[in-house]
């Protein structure tokens, strides 16, 4: 999921356009982008879209950001949207493992009512100071949590933290990446609001990639190509990973724990990274055989 295109739930005319975009995933938003008076209508339109033939036939990942757990809309969102077409539920503002467990219980109830057989995963937003402090616990709270996603606006703005200061962004990214690593889930980068600053978007995406993030959110179609390019393994990365795996098999036959590839010492952590790169490349259809 190199790119995830944000689609306002109050703009159902954009749903199918987003589905035909080059984004790896689309995320319909029922939270911040939908005014209070339009919540029910947006929910119904999103549910209709999830049940459509286009969604049933797509290979694109379909995500919905519902309203927060404490919201009066949360249960209604789940009952309408927990359908076979939904891959991930993007949960805003969880602050503890207990919040995740409560959300999981609600999802299970909705799955039972709607006869959904494949469990729906959770992408948990980290967007409050407490959530950042408890991010590892949030990520490890339940096996349904597959990833953590930074929410810069909610995290920074109430505290007066300058979003334009790269050191501030890096600090938050690093903290959440370590928490995701501890929990064994992926880390996903948040949105970049200035759609007229592609260089800024690229720079932030490249920083996220260097920190081991899976991909970056897009709030405009113009950002999709940037995210796809930045988070796609390069030909050099793939070639090196394939050499590492080939040499690892040879070293295993020699009962050798560490070995050299292109003058670099390689052991288990590097092998695991090479496996991950090759897996990503194969999923994208760009990796040759080992």
**How do the helices and strands follow one another from N- to C-terminus?**
EHEHHEHEHEHHEHHEHEHHEEH
| Topology, number of strands | 10
The end-to-end distance, rounded to whole angstroms, is: 23 Å
Q: Largest beta sheet, briefly? A: 8 strands, parallel
Mean pLDDT: 93
Structure description:
- The chain is of the alpha/beta class.
- It has two domains: 3-231, TIM Barrel, CATH 3.20.20; 235-283, no CATH class.
- The protein is built from 13 helices and ten strands.
- The strands form two sheets. An eight-stranded parallel β-sheet has the order 7-6-5-4-3-2-1-8. Strands 9-10 form a two-stranded antiparallel ribbon.
- α4 links the parallel β3 and β4.
- α2 runs parallel beside α4 and α10 runs parallel beside α11 (224-231).
- The longest helix has 19 residues, at 235-253.
């Amino acid at each position: 999921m190199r790119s995830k295109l944000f689609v306002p739930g109050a703009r159902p005319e954009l749903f199918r356009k987003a589905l035909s975009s080059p984004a790896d995933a689309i995320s319909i938003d029922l939270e911040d982008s939908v005014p209070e008076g339009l919540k029910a209508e947006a929910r119904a339109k999103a549910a209709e879209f999830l049940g459509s033939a286009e969604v049933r036939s797509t290979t694109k990942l379909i995500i919905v950001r519902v309203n927060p757990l404490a919201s009066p809309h949360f249960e209604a969102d789940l009952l309408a949207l927990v359908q076979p077409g939904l891959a991930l539920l993007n949960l805003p503002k969880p602050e503890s493992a207990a919040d995740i467990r409560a959300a999981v219980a609600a999802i299970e109830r909705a799955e039972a009512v709607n006869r959904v057989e494949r469990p729906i995963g959770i992408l948990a937003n980290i967007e409050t100071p407490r959530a950042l402090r408890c991010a590892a616990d949030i990520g490890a709270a339940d096996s349904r949590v597959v990833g953590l996603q930074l929410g810069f606006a909610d995290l920074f703005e109430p505290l007066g933290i300058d979003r334009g200061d790269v050191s501030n962004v890096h600090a938050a990214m690093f903290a959440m990446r370590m928490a995701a690593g501890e929990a064994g889930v992926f880390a996903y980068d948040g949105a970049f609001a200035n759609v007229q600053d592609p260089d800024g978007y690229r720079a932030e995406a490249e920083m996220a990639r260097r920190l081991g993030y899976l991909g970056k959110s897009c709030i405009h179609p113009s950002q999709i190509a940037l995210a796809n390019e930045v988070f796609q393994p390069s030909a050099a990365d793939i070639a090196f990973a394939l050499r590492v795996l080939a040499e690892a098999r040879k070293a295993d036959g020699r009962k050798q724990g560490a070995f050299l590839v292109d003058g670099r010492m390689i052991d288990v952590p590097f092998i695991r990274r090479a496996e991950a790169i090759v897996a990503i490349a194969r999923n994208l259809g760009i990796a040759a055989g080992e």
